[in-house]
Each structure stands twice: as C-alpha cells, then as structure tokens.
C-alpha cells in the first residue's frame, strides 16, 4: 500500500468501531429515506413496492441470523470482513440495476437483499464489541447517520428531475465500498478463530464477558420484549402516510418531514453529547421521550385528514421535531440502562454479553420492518399498542437507571 493511502487509514484505525456503527446505521436508513423515494420519483413504483417488501422481510431474516451467529461466538478477521463488505457492495449495485432497468421480481429482490445483509453480519459484530468495551451508548454515531440520510432525502425531493440510476447507484454503494476498503487495505489486529459459545462464556480467551441468568432475563424483558416498539409503531404509521402522499405526487409533506428531522436531529446530537455520562440527564431524556410518544399518538390522526388546510403540516412538524429530538435521547437512555444491566450482571459462567447485545441491536432493526409489514397487510390499533409499549419501556429504563445509577463504564 502506498504511504499516501496508508496515512489516512492509520488515522481511521482507532475509530474503526464507531465508523462501522455509523456506516451500518447509514446503510440501514438509506433505503427508507433515499432509495425507495428515488424509485417512486423515478416512476418505478412497482419496483419500489417489490424492494420495500423484500427489504422488510430480509431485515427480519438477517436479524435472526445475526443472533444465531453471535450465539456461536464466531469472529472473522477484519480483512475477511472487508471482502464480505465489498461483495455486499456488488450485490447492492446489481439490485439497483435490476430495480431501474429490470428484470426485477419479488424473489430476486428478496435474494439480493437477504444476501447483502447476511454478508454484513460479521462486520456488525465488530461494532457491537466496541460498544460493549466502551460501555457507552452508540447513539451519537447513529445520529450522524440520520443526519446524512436526511440531507440526501432533502436533495432528492428538491431536485426530483435529477433522479436516475447514475445518481442513486453511488449513494447506495459508496457506504459499503468505503467500509470494505478500510477493512481490507489496512492490517488491523485479527480476531480470534471461530469458537463455540461454551469455550468463550468465561471471557478468558477472547474478552467476552458472561452475564448471569437473572441479568439476562431482565435484559430480555426490557431490551427485547419492550425496547422501542411503541415508537416503532408510531413511526411506521407516519412513514406509510408519507409514502401515500409521495405516490400521489405530493412531496410537500415529505419535504417538511425531512427538513424538520434535520433540525431536530442536529439538536439531539448536541444534547446527547452533553448527557451520555450523566444518569440524571438520562432520566430526564427518558421522561421527555415518553411524553413525546404520548403527544405523537394523539397527533397521529391528523396525518390521515384530507383537508387542504395547514393542520396536517403543523401536526407533522410538531410530531417529527419532538420525535427526532427525543427519540435518539430515549434510545440512548435505553442503551445505557441495558449496558448497566450487563455490566452489573457479569459473572464467571453464563450467557455471553455479546449475544445479548447482538439480540438487542438485531431486534431494534427488526422493530420497524415488522411493524410496517403488519400494517401493510392488516389494521392495528396503533394508539393503544404504542401507549402500552411506551409505558413498559419508560418504567423499565427509569427503574434500572435509579437502581444502578448509570455505572456502565468498564474498568
């Protein structure tokens, strides 16, 4: 490798974990904020429906596969992960070509999406291990991914005539390509060889800590059964309302949504940077998040109105601003509570904490796809269900933060 390339890669080396978390979340958000909307604006509405359905289903499949992978405690070298990421970039380019030019069917779309996400599972494990080592929520890296996704979405809506294959392709493929080059072109310390969960549960050989059965049960109730499902239900209802407007040729509502998200997420990034190590501020963030969810649920019916007044725009702007400001803060508080449960539940023998954290991150990615899949094919009492899950999450997080006082940093 030339010295001109080696220098920036050496500089990025210490930030590999955060960069993987950022790129992974950006690749997760990009289809919903950019790619699917690009297909609608490019008069490829049938392809958009096929891709949306394939994307949602493949996220569920890959989430289950990621949990299985972490349970076996398999790890690959960074170079191997880089090769897999470059392969995922190729599959995404093939996906875009088929979506714009055909042939594009449901089975082929699902196969390409599923293969892409399965290839990225070993890469995501590097980010998970970084989070557990630091003991701090990765929310700030995810917020940066949100901001970049929203900027691309705004550009798309402001200049719909520019939508074409050659604009969409680099935006979709570049995240995978950059990460793949970073992982393959620089020799980082290699991971251990694949081992079974029984050999690593004590954490002596590869740094994986074990968690007691009681702590694992508490983690499961708060992080898996409750999580942010309440927020996901409301988000899915809002997303489908915006999708209907965009398909009808009305982009004003979607544009107002993205501009509001950009401003609120910028404020959320600043707030999160100031509160990630303070238990009192995390408690306040969780209370704000819970209050915001109640407001969003009350305002949700206004999005379905067909009047030409300003009530829909006002309701959307208020919902989105409060959600995208308090949403990342609430998620960060949830992360802090879950990391506290893992940290204080460590023991000599038990379930590896990487398995539990991977299950949480996988479930978090599956929450919105599952909610959207159900709502696309069936009617739900979104308001009631969202209130129930919001109450469960907020009470659980507040109880954990008060119990452990937010001490999650690993010594």
TrEMBL record:
Q: In which domain of life is the source organism classified?
A: Eukaryota
Q: Where are the transmembrane segments?
A: 108-127, 139-159, 165-185, 206-233, 385-404
Q: Which UniProt keywords apply?
A: Membrane, Transmembrane, Transmembrane helix
Mind telling me what this protein is named? Uncharacterized protein
Q: Which organism is it from?
A: Cladocopium goreaui
